[in-house]
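Dear Dr. H.,

I hope your travels went smoothly. While you were away I took the liberty of generating a structure for the chain from your last submission, since the lab meeting agenda had it listed for discussion. I wanted you to have the full record in hand beforehand rather than looking at slides cold. The sequence, exactly as received, is reproduced here:
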Amino acid sequence: MKRTMRKGIVRAITGSMGRFLSVFSIVAIGCGLFAGVRSAGDEMRATTDRYFDSSVLADAQIYTPIGFRESDLERFSGMEGVARFMPGCVVVAESEYGDEIRNVRVQTISGGEIYDRINLPKVIEGRLPGAPDECVVEYRAIQDGSYSLGEKVKLTIPDGSTQSMLLRENDLTIVGAIDSPLYLSFSWSAISIVSSEPKYNIFTGNDAFYPDRFNFMYFTFKGSADAFSYSPEYDEIIQDGTGNLRYEARVWANDLYAAYSGGAVNEFPEISEELIREFFDSGSEPFYVLTRDDVQGYTLFENDARRVDGLAKIFPALFYLVAALVCLTTMTRMVDEERIQIGVMKALGYSAAAISVKYVAYATLAGLLGGLFGTAIGFQIFPRVIYKPYLIMYRLPPIRPVFRYEHAWPALLIAVFAIVLATVLAILKILRSRPAELMRPKPPLVGRSVPAEKVGLIWNRMSFFHKVTVRNLFRYEKRLIMTVLGIAGCTALILTGFGLRNAVNDIIDKQFSDILLHDIRVYLKDPVTDVQSDVSISLLSSIEGVEGVCPISAQTATVFGEDGEELELSLVVPADVDQFKDYFNLRERESGRPIALPADGVILSEKASKLLGLRKGDTARIEPAGSEAFEAPIVAIAENYVEHYVYMSPEYASRVFGNLEPINVLLTRTDDLDGDAADLLAKEILEKDEFSALMSYSTVKARMHVIFRNLDALIYVLIGSAFALALIVLYNLTNINVKERIREIATLKVLGFYDTEVSAYVFRENAVLTLVGAGPGLLLGMLMHSSVTLSGEVDMIMFGRQIHPESFVLAFLITCGFSVIIHAIMHFYLKRIGMVESLKSVE
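The corresponding predicted structure, in token form, is as follows:
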């Protein structure tokens, strides 16, 4: 009996290889997408973690403008918990390059032979510096043509400054290009074109600086190399290590202050005496402790990986449900086709379990093999496709995907369980019947009237074939429901993919075109209280290319939610409410109604309200930086997509704070300037002593386009996978519908129908089902889009909430197009059906 059952299983597979491969393919796509996309975020983080470990990226840094003495190095290197220690020098200088004056950051690669190596660079071209007058630059500066090997770099630092007392060599020759773990991406702070913010990084040997003079120290802590970056364990190690570092730094600062108060002369008075006086007289700490979160691109990459995680939570799961539904239909059909064989086996004395083994084994093999193949391919393909576009923005090594069991097992278990469960339910239903009933073919469904027949105005005007189509649709209700559900699911997946792309693109379009109605944000060096008499506004307005200026107060504040949540955002108070309307479009997202700044209360941006759990009418507790907290009613929720804001009228601010907040930002509208003209305008603004920095939204948009273009890769993967699933699902459902009606089709041929007429007879029903399924699919896609966009957001960004009309049209047309393709393929199958089939006895 066992041998017979094994032969039956083999024959079931070989005799219906098309069905087996269909189930195999659907499960493979479902498991591959489910496991592959879900592993992409983990693979991205694993790649950076390996890179950080191999390059020994510092866990923490401490910087002081005052400078460290030799004895200070011994103090900090001997701290408890320090694994590696390296001192260094970093200065900011100006570099002449043709007619351009560039701000550059010059820093040492190592701290010397007696210290550990940290932040190891990777040489891409040339070599590392071997002489005091040699340097290397970042490889991206070579790629974009900013520098070339062999070029001379002349550095200028103002005489008498503390940094001029550190750098010894001012004329350097570029001998190589490197990737440094300290700079993973382009400078996000370059969005703000700050006068002191360097655009380029140059690396030298220790000999380019004066000996025994340092202003930076780099640390790695014990246990951090064994902990996974971005993990809670790593964060705990860093928290303990930086806590010790801050304590030691405060002790160092106190000792330095005691020496300064006692009149002691610093070891390097020309470097630090003036700064010592400035820091201690102001009460500020003369040091800054930095972690990897301050490394250029470190946190940004983590946010990108989290965005991938968010989109991978729901979309693959919904994708999986559609695949499981179609597998259910396929296996149910297989059991129905073999009801006569099942009846014979029951009559021969086979038990229900023995009969079920064949079909359960068939379903298990199809699900398990398809799942293993899909996950194995998915782990290799999807993370690579998703990760590759990020290399445009980040300087990171290639990804090395691995088979991740934590994602593979759920995919395999769900796939096998769903298919086996569907098979068991179908076989149990058959096994309840008596052998005599099963050994006779299933009687055809009895025709019955349909609702359309009762509407004579319509029914009487329908042709014969149209009446047959309507009756067949209602005759096979189960087939109708399963086909409509399958098509609806595929349409919904396609629409969700296109909707995701709309949601990402809307961030830039709506934020920087519809909401922010100004082009540049200029920061004043010294905040002012009297706007009317201040010369900085008139000075900025007089610059050619500037159309208008709106002064505001912008400061950091913390808002607390109802359940203890807290969120850091920007508190904005305009000087003139009427003028502010022309620079900030405050409106409700759903209704589009404009929002006026209230005389009593605040306006909160939408994403902030969601994160804090606050709604219109609630009371928010707000704590501005350096001020006491206050409570304010939330009068309205404003549409906003990037960062978080709370807006107050100047009247309400004066009541809360006792006086008007100093103006420190000038919102600026400009003429429509191209890239070069905008850069020249920014440069001209920053040449004025009254302004310390500016933020150009044209630069912000360009950078955000790069970021979201990376996310497009994931979206295209999802859309492409939805296309593949839709094609297989439609083929599978159409194939089942055709095979169920072989005798009916053969009979039509006997009656003299041409091949094209036979195809039209069959596919007319499928066309109606496609149209009927695509409609609800669009509605389901709207619900799926809402869930996926919410799960894919990060804290600082809100995706667009609307699906564009063209996405609905595309999703509908693609579904219909796939249906037409399947019909064309199946037409040739129908042509091969022999007429003799209709003459065979049903016994």
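Two observations you may find useful: The first strand starts at residue 60 and ends at 68. Confidence is low (pLDDT under 50) at residues 188-196.

With kind regards,
E. W.
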